[in-house]
Design a protein that fits this description.
The protein is an alpha/beta fold. The protein contains 14 helices and 19 strands. Strands 5-13-12-11-10-6-9 form a seven-stranded mixed beta sheet, with helices on both faces. Strands 2-3-4-16 form a four-stranded mixed beta sheet. A three-stranded antiparallel beta sheet has the order 1-18-19. Strand 7 and strand 8 form a beta hairpin. It is globular. The structure holds pyridoxal-5'-phosphate. The site of pyridoxal-5'-phosphate has 13 residues, from helix 5.
């Protein structure tokens, strides 16, 4: 039985905190100043959740690296939690954006780039018709609305411990008795989520079948693999069965590829041969310039056209003045055309494999009760010996203290991981040296964790 001496871990965390404050005095000063005018002292509330007493303020980012205002250099595996997966400020995207910005940013009229991007999305994901938004949240919100409109049904089904952006219907979870309830922390919910949503565990086909059989479900909104509570992969055959159940019960199948595009240029949809009615995606499409999209099959498009009131289209709840603007279209064209190419994905996935192998070697060498999971160029370690099979198992394995300790230990040595759960992404600019540096520092972090085996302290 392996446990961790929590008191000692707490002391080690304090040392890391102290080191963080010493290395980041200028960031600390900027954070103090920001508290005067920014709610919570940050531009967006979740930036308070970085381990350390305040977030690191960035001076400059380039490719897979950035420098903070104190002059510290970092290898960035967080990459804006996928927003920067194309690498920071890739030249070709920066040039295209600068050129477009000088020729008009937002016009309420199309530019020629939109058709190119639509055709490229079709090539990648197989769905013939696309529409654009600024965020993946909006893409999901709009597809849910369409699904309700087309089916005349009120509810959606989501996976337990999913995250699809700030979409009201998705802030639901299962309680201990298996009932759908509001997710902890659900701020100002418009209606109790059980009125709009049914939650099922990923890989639980029986519950899914029961949820769909009542005939009131407009859409299943699923990530192909969970990515926001650790990576939870689907069982073999799961997606075929989901497709079959959705078809049988007249429910639209919506696949959210915002994070799972890590599996390849067409996400899991292409890599695993999925057959969704709609795909949603955002974050990385425009190298971080706000850009997102949803695509639908020809059959769904026909139903959309038939259900559209053209006179009232602008006030129908699907819109956004800045959506589809010229700047994001130019950013997407450059990013998809020249940065996140099929060839780049090949290299990024190889680096993902190297990252996974490095972490696995540390786990094996020290016989740590951890495991590592990979989805293409996205890799994550979770603090349980074997893979979680569903969201509940993954949620139960979260170890906030250990997560924060490893995160801050790495950060203090120039490696940035995604916060909340330690996840790494490879970009086209990431190198094998970057990956090996992570392995080295991760090994040191693991060496310092105060494990206790069968009653005696050991360094694992
Ligand atoms: C799978 C998934 N879908 C959608 C979103 C929402 O993206 P955004 O916050 O850019 O709207 C997220 C955000 O993390 C996500 O993980």
């Amino acid at each position: 039985m392996v446990t961790i001496d929590r008191q000692r871990l707490h002391e080690l965390m304090e040392q890391e905190r102290q080191a963080f404050r010493e290395r980041h005095s200028h960031s600390g000063q900027l954070a103090d100043d920001a508290r005067a005018n920014l709610l919570y002292g940050v531009p967006m509330n979740w930036m308070t959740r970085w381990p350390g007493d305040f977030p690191v303020f960035v001076e400059r980012a380039d490719g897979a690296r950035f420098r903070d205002v104190d002059g510290n250099e970092f290898v960035d595996f967080c990459l804006g939690d996928t927003g920067g997966m194309a690498g920071h400020s890739p030249k070709v995207a920066v040039d295209a954006v600068a050129e477009q910005a000088a020729r008009g940013i937002t016009l309420m009229l199309p530019t020629g780039d939109a058709q190119w991007v639509g055709a490229e999305m079709t090539r990648r994901f197989g769905l013939p018709y696309w529409s654009f938004t600024l965020t993946a949240t909006d893409a999901n919100r709009f597809v849910i609305r369409w699904a309700r409109q087309l089916t005349g049904r009120p509810r959606i089904v989501v996976h337990n411990w999913c995250y699809h952006g700030s979409v009201d219907e998705t802030f639901a979870t299962l309680d201990d008795a298996g009932r759908t309830v509001a997710r902890p922390g659900n701020v100002g919910m418009p209606v109790p989520p059980e009125q709009t949503t049914k939650v099922v565990e990923i890989n639980d086909l029986e519950s899914l079948e029961r949820s769909l059989a009542t005939g009131d479900v407009a859409a299943c909104l699923f990530e192909p693999a969970l990515t926001n509570i650790g990576i939870v992969l689907p069982d073999p055959g799961y997606h075929d069965a989901v497709r079959e159940l959705c078809t049988r019960h007249g429910t639209l199948l919506v696949i959210d590829e915002t994070h799972t595009i890590s599996a390849g240029p067409g996400g899991c949809t292409a890599a695993w041969g999925l057959r969704p009615d709609a795909v949603t995606i955002g974050k990385t499409l425009g190298a971080g310039i706000p850009s997102a999209a949803y695509g639908v099959t020809a059959e769904v498009a026909e139903r959309v056209y038939a259900a559209t009131d053209y006179e009232l289209m602008d006030v129908g709840g699907i819109g956004g003045t800045l959506a589809g603007n010229a700047l994001s279209m130019a950013a997407m064209r450059a990013t998809l055309g020249a940065v996140l190419t099929d060839e780049s994905f090949g290299r990024m996935i190889q680096l993902g494999e190297r990252f996974e192998a490095g972490v696995q070697s540390v786990i094996d060498f020290r016989a740590l009760p951890f495991h590592v999971t990979r989805l293409g160029c996205r890799v994550e370690y979770l603090f349980r010996p074997d893979r979680a099979r569903n969201g509940s198992e993954a949620a139960a394995a979260q170890d906030g203290e250990l997560d924060a300790f490893i995160h801050l230990y790495l950060l203090n040595r120039g490696i940035l991981m995604t916060p909340f759960h330690n996840m790494a992404l490879m970009s086209p600019a990431t190198t094998s040296e970057d990956v090996d540096r992570h392995t080295e520092v991760f090994a040191e972090a693991c060496e310092s964790i105060p494990f206790t085996r069968a009653g005696r302290e050991t360094r694992a």
